[in-house]
Design a protein that fits this description.
The chain has 85 residues and is an alpha+beta fold. The chain contains one helix and five strands.
């Protein structure tokens, strides 16, 4: 009763991904990787993860890094570039 356990692994951060003039709002765990993020974006953008380039503050995010490692926090705005092929 009245015990609230704060599991930080379950906290989510809210991101906005700009893609082709659209803004896509996402809620993700800071521990998820950039690759996970791309998988979530695939059905929304119809771009395969390998064709996605996520850019944050002018830098292309590394697939294997987590959002936390990439300094992506709540309210972050990312840009998605789609490369064909």
């Amino acid at each position: 009763m009245g015990h609230h356990h704060h599991h930080h692994s379950h906290s989510t951060i809210k991101l906005t991904v700009k893609f082709g003039g659209k803004s896509i709002p996402l809620s993700v765990s800071p521990d998820c990787t950039v690759k996970d993020l791309k998988s979530q974006l695939q059905p929304i953008t119809n771009v395969l993860p390998r064709g996605q380039k996520l850019i944050f503050k002018g830098k292309v995010l590394v697939e294997t890094s987590t959002l936390k490692q990439s300094d992506v926090g709540s309210g972050a705005k990312l840009m998605l570039m789609a490369s064909q092929g």
